[in-house]
UniProtKB/TrEMBL annotation, chain A:
Pfam families registered for this protein in UniProt: ABC_tran (PF00005), BCA_ABC_TP_C (PF12399)
Species annotation: Nitratireductor aestuarii
Gene Ontology MF annotations: ATP binding; ATP hydrolysis activity; L-isoleucine transmembrane transporter activity; L-phenylalanine transmembrane transporter activity; L-valine transmembrane transporter activity
Protein name: ABC transporter ATP-binding protein
Family: Belongs to the ABC transporter superfamily.
Keywords: Amino-acid transport, ATP-binding, Nucleotide-binding, Transport
Gene3D superfamilies: P-loop containing nucleotide triphosphate hydrolases
Length: 391, 466
C-alpha cells in the first residue's frame, strides 16, 4: 500500500531508514528446535531513542544478546555504522571481504555477528546494561566507572609496565578518567555515593549507575535492557530525563521496556516483537494504534491487562469500547498455535488501515475503517515494516 | 531499640537480668564440659600400654578430668567476656563503629612496626638468642617464602577470583628451572637464573591458563589440581632430564656480587674482614627472600591500582559485566595466571638455592593446599592477611614442636609433638568459624574521590570456585 509511495520522497523517509546507526537484517536465533527470533529486520536511527517492546518471551532480550555479542546469531547480519549515512557499499564490501570491521577515517562499519562481545563494546561502541543489574558490587561506584574505561587506561598505563614504574602519562590519563566518571556521576545524581560500594546503593541508584558505567565506555549506541523496571514514578521520570540527555550527547539509544509511560514518552521509534517476529515498526503514534500490537498486548487471558492507562485510552479513542470488549476475551489458546514463524494473524481483527500516514487525523479515520471489521488480508513481512513509518 | 529498653529498666530488673545471664553462662559451660567429657573419655581417658602377653589398659583419670575442667572454665570465660556482647546486644553497634574508625590508623602503625621488625629480624635473633639464631632465622625464611607464595597466589585467587589448586606447579617449575640451568651451564648463577625461572614459570602459567579459560567453579579447581599433579609426575618420571625421584643436588648457593658465603679467599667474610660464621649465609638468604617478597608485594599493590588490577577484581565480581564493558577477559585471566605463576617461579628458584637439593617430593599437592589455605585464612585479596596467615600456619606448626610445658598437664608420658597436627587442625577450624572470610575480609578501594571506606566482606564476591 503505502510503502511504494514512500520511497521516492526523501522528506518522508524516517531517520532510521536514512541514517541508521545499526541495522539488523534477517536475524534468526535458534536454540535447538526453538526459534527465539525469526527473520527479524529493523534499523536503529542515529541519535534516536528506539524502543524494542513486546510481551514476555517475545525474544527482545535475545535480540539484545545477539546485538551485543553474547549470543552468536544463527543467521543474519547486524551492521553497526560510525559516521553518517547508510554506507551501503561499505557494508557490502566488509560482508564480502570476510573482515569483521573496517574503519575509514570518520566512517566505519562493524559486523557485530562476527565480533566477540568485548570487541563489540571496545571497537564498535555498543554498550549495554542488563535486565538483572550486573554491577561490581564489591567495588566502589567510582571504581565501577573506572573499570568501564579499562581499554583506554590500559594503553595509557603502557600495558601496566609504565603504570608500575609510576610514569606521569598514566597518572594524567587516570585523572581524566576520574573526571569523566565525575561527569557521569553528576548526571546520574550519584556524586554523594561515589566512594560507597556499588552493592550498597538502593535499587534505583544501581540502575542509574549501570547506565553511567555503560556511558563511560563512550558508546555510539547504548542498549538498555528494561532500565525502568522496579523504578518508582519519580525515578522513571528522572530516567527519561537522563535518556534525553544521553541522546543529546549524540549517543543513540536502543531500549527494551515494559513501562509504556517511558516508551511512549521518549521513543522516536518503536519496534514491537511477538514470538520472535516483528509485528509493528514505526513511531509511537502509529505503533500504539496498530491492531496487531493491541492484540499482542491486550488479547490475553483477562481484562486486567487492559488496565495499562495509556494503551486503554488510545484503544478506546481509536477503535471504540465495543472493539475492546471484542478483543479482550481473545483466548491464549488461539495465540498458542501461532508459532514463531507465523505472526499473530488473528481472525476477526480490525483491518490494518492506512491510518498511520496522517497521524493527526488518522485516529478518527482508523476508527471508521476499523468499525466494519473486515477480515485482515495477509501481507508479506517486509512491507509491514515501512508501513507504520510512513508518517 | 535494645539500648533504649535496657536503659529504661529498673536496677532490680537489671540485676535479675545479670543473674540470669550468669546462670545461663554456667549452664552452657556445663553442657560443653559434659560433651567434652563424653568425647574425650576414650581419647584421653584410656591409654593402652604394651604389656607381657598383649596390651594393658590404663585409666588416666587425672588427664580426663583436667580436660573437662579446662573446657568448663574456658567456655564459662568465653560466655562471660567474649560472647557477652551478642547476648545483651545493646552496645555492639557503637563499639564496632569506633573500632573501624580507629582501625585504619592503628593498622598503618602496626604495618610499619611489622615491617621494621621484619627488617631487623635476623639481628634480633642473633642478639637475643645467640644459641638458637640459626633455627629462628630458618623459620623466618620459611615463613617469608610462604608469604611470597601466598602473595603470588593471591593475585590469581584473591584478586582475579580463579581458584587454583595447582599453584605448587609453578613453584616446581621455578625450582627446577634454576636447578637445571645452574647445573648445566657454569655461568648461570642465582641472580641470572632468577628472572629466567620467573619467565619460564609465567610461560607455564599461560599454558595452564589457556585450557581453563572457559571453566568455572569446581571444574576450574579440578583442572588446576590435575595440572599441578601432571607437573610433579613428569618431574618424577622424566629420569634423564630431571633425575626423577633422586632429584637434583649441588645447586649453587647465592653470591653477593660474586662473593661466596664460604671459608677462605674471595669469600664474603674475608672481603669484609669478618670471622667466618655460617650464620652469614642464613642472614643473606633471609634478606634475599625479604627483598623478593617485598617486590612481590609492591608490584601487586601497584597492579591492583592499575587498570589491569581493577579488571581482575571486576572479573571476580562479574565476568559478564566485564565483557559488556569491552574488557578482554581471556587476556585478563591469562595475565593473572602468568603474573601469579611468575612470583611462584621466583619463590621456587629461591627454594632451590636455599636447599641446595630439590626433588619432586617437595612439590606435592599438600604444598598447594597450604598456600591456598594461607590465602583463604588471610582473607582473599588481602596482602596483610596473607602475612598473618603465613605466620599462623607455618610459624604455628613450628611453634607446636616446642610444647614441652604440656607434659606438666598431661603427665610425663605425653608427647606434644604427636598432637601437633590435631591442635593445628583444631586451630584452623576455630579460626574459620570465628572469621569465615579470613583474618582481613574487608576490601580497600583502589581509588576515592573523598575518602577511602573499607568495603565489607558481604559485598565482595569470592569469584569462581567458592
Amino acid at each position: 500500500m503505502s510503502d511504494t509511495l514512500v520511497a521516492p520522497n526523501p522528506a518522508t523517509i524516517p531517520n532510521w531508514e536514512a541514517d541508521p546507526v545499526l541495522t539488523v537484517e534477517h536475524l534468526t536465533m535458534r536454540f535447538g528446535g526453538l526459534v527465539a527470533v525469526g527473520d527479524l529486520s529493523f534499523s536503529v536511527g542515529r541519535g534516536d531513542i528506539t524502543a524494542l517492546i513486546g510481551p514476555n518471551g517475545a525474544g527482545k532480550t535475545t535480540v539484545f544478546n545477539c546485538v551485543t555479542g553474547f549470543y552468536k546469531p544463527t543467521e543474519g547480519r547486524i551492521a553497526m555504522r560510525h559516521g553518517p549515512g547508510k554506507q551501503a557499499e561499505l557494508v557490502e564490501e566488509v560482508t564480502a571481504s570476510g573482515l569483521r570491521w573496517k574503519k575509514d577515517g570518520e566512517q566505519g562499519v562493524f559486523l557485530l555477528e562476527r565480533m566477540a562481545d568485548h570487541e563489540i563494546s571496545a571497537r564498535a561502541g555498543v554498550a549495554r546494561t542488563f535486565q538483572n543489574i550486573r554491577l561490581f558490587s564489591g567495588m566502589t561506584v567510582l571504581e565501577n566507572l573506572l573499570v568501564a574505561q579499562h581499554n583506554r587506561l590500559v594503553v595509557a598505563s603502557g600495558f601496566s609496565i609504565g603504570g608500575i614504574l609510576g610514569l606521569p602519562n598514566y597518572r594524567k590519563a587516570e585523572s581524566e578518567a576520574v573526571d569523566k566518571a565525575v561527569h557521569w556521576l553528576k548526571q546520574t545524581n550519584l556524586m554523594d555515593r561515589a566512594d560507597d560500594p556499588a552493592g550498597d546503593l538502593p535499587y534505583g541508584a544501581q540502575r542509574r549507575l549501570e547506565i553511567a558505567r555503560a556511558m563511560c565506555t563512550d558508546p555510539y549506541l547504548l542498549c538498555l535492557d528494561e532500565p525502568a523496571a522496579g523504578l518508582n514514578p519519580r525515578e522513571s521520570k528522572e530516567l527519561n530525563e537522563l535518556l534525553q540527555y544521553i541522546r543529546g550527547q549524540g549517543t543513540s539509544v536502543l531500549l527494551i521496556e515494559h513501562d509504556m509511560g517511558v516508551v511512549m514518552e521518549i521513543s522516536d521509534h518503536i519496534i514491537v516483537l511477538d514470538y520472535g517476529v516483528k509485528i509493528a515498526d514505526g513511531d509511537a503514534t502509529s505503533v500504539r494504534t496498530d491492531p496487531k500490537v493491541i492484540a499482542a498486548y491486550l488479547g490475553v487471558e483477562d481484562e486486567e491487562d487492559l488496565d495499562v492507562p495509556e494503551v486503554r485510552e488510545h484503544v478506546i479513542e481509536t477503535i471504540g469500547e465495543a472493539a475492546i470488549a471484542d478483543l479482550a476475551p481473545q483466548p491464549m489458546a488461539e495465540r498458542a498455535p501461532v508459532t514463531s514463524a507465523e505472526p499473530a494473524q488473528a481472525v476477526g481483527k480490525p483491518k490494518r488501515a492506512p491510518r498511520a500516514r496522517k497521524a493527526a487525523t488518522g485516529k478518527t479515520e482508523t476508527a471508521k475503517t476499523a468499525a466494519p471489521k473486515t477480515p485482515r488480508t495477509r501481507k508479506p513481512r517486509g512491507t509491514s515494516s515501512s508501513d507504520g513509518g510512513a508518517t | 531499640m535494645m539500648a533504649v529498653t535496657s536503659a529504661n529498666t529498673s536496677p532490680g530488673a537489671r540485676a535479675r537480668q545479670e543473674e540470669n545471664r550468669f546462670a545461663q553462662a554456667v549452664r552452657d559451660a556445663a553442657i560443653a564440659a559434659f560433651l567434652a567429657g563424653v568425647l574425650s573419655f576414650f581419647f584421653i581417658g584410656f591409654r593402652t600400654d604394651i604389656a607381657p602377653g598383649g596390651l594393658s589398659l590404663k585409666m588416666r583419670w587425672s588427664a580426663w578430668i583436667t580436660a573437662i575442667v579446662v573446657v568448663f572454665v574456658g567456655r564459662l570465660l568465653l560466655n562471660l567476656f567474649v560472647f557477652n556482647r551478642t547476648w545483651s546486644g545493646s552496645s555492639t553497634k557503637p563499639r564496632s563503629a569506633t573500632v573501624s574508625e580507629r582501625l585504619p590508623d592503628l593498622g598503618k602503625w602496626l604495618l610499619r612496626a611489622f615491617f621494621i621488625f621484619a627488617l631487623v629480624l635476623p639481628f634480633v635473633a642473633m642478639y637475643f638468642f645467640p644459641n638458637r639464631d640459626r633455627q629462628f632465622i630458618d623459620i623466618a625464611i620459611l615463613i617469608m617464602t610462604y608469604v611470597m607464595l601466598g602473595w603470588g597466589l593471591n593475585i590469581v585467587v584473591g584478586l582475579a577470583g580463579l581458584l587454583d589448586l595447582g599453584y605448587v606447579a609453578f613453584y616446581a617449575v621455578g625450582a627446577y628451572s634454576f636447578a637445571l640451568l645452574s647445573t648445566h651451564f657454569e655461568f648461570i648463577g642465582f641472580w641470572t637464573a632468577l628472572p629466567l625461572a620467573g619467565m619460564l614459570a609465567a610461560c607455564w602459567g599461560l599454558v595452564l591458563g589457556f585450557p581453563v579459560l572457559r571453566l568455572r567453579g569446581d571444574y576450574l579447581a579440578i583442572v588446576t589440581l590435575a595440572f599441578g599433579e601432571i607437573i610433579r609426575v613428569v618431574l618424577l618420571n622424566w629420569y634423564e632430564f630431571t633425575g626423577g625421584p633422586n632429584g637434583i643436588s649441588g645447586i649453587p648457593k647465592p653470591t653477593l656480587f660474586g662473593l661466596e658465603f664460604a671459608r677462605g679467599e674471595g669469600s664474603f667474610a674475608s672481603f669484609f674482614g669478618l670471622t667466618y660464621d655460617p650464620i652469614h649465609r642464613f642472614v643473606y638468604l633471609y634478606y634475599i627472600i625479604f627483598l623478593l617478597a617485598l617486590i612481590t608485594n609492591i608490584v601487586t599493590m601497584r597492579l591492583r591500582a592499575l587498570p589491569i588490577g581493577r579488571a581482575w577484581e571486576a572479573l571476580r565480581e562479574d565476568e559478564i559485566a566485564c565483557r559488556s564493558l569491552g574488557i578482554n577477559t581471556r587476556n585478563t585471566k591469562l595475565t593473572a595466571f602468568a603474573i601469579g605463576a611468575m612470583f611462584g617461579g621466583f619463590a621456587g628458584s629461591f627454594f632451590a638455592t636455599r636447599q641446595g637439593f630439590i626433588s619432586p617430593e617437595s612439590f606435592s599437592f599438600i604444598e598447594s593446599a597450604i598456600i591456598l589455605a594461607i590465602v583463604v585464612l588471610g582473607g582473599l585479596g588481602s596482602q596483610i592477611g596473607v602475612v598473618i596467615a603465613a605466620i599462623v600456619m607455618i610459624g604455628g606448626t613450628e611453634a607446636l614442636r616446642n610444647l614441652g610445658f604440656l607434659t606438666y598437664i598431661f603427665g610425663p608420658g605425653f608427647d606434644p609433638v604427636q598432637y601437633r597436627m590435631l591442635l593445628f587442625g583444631l586451630a584452623m577450624v576455630i579460626i574459620m568459624v570465628w572469621k569465615p572470610r579470613g583474618f582481613v575480609s574487608t576490601r580497600e578501594p583502589t581509588v576515592a574521590l573523598k575518602e577511602k571506606k573499607r568495603i565489607g566482606a558481604d559485598l565482595v564476591a569470592q569469584g569462581e570456585g567458592h
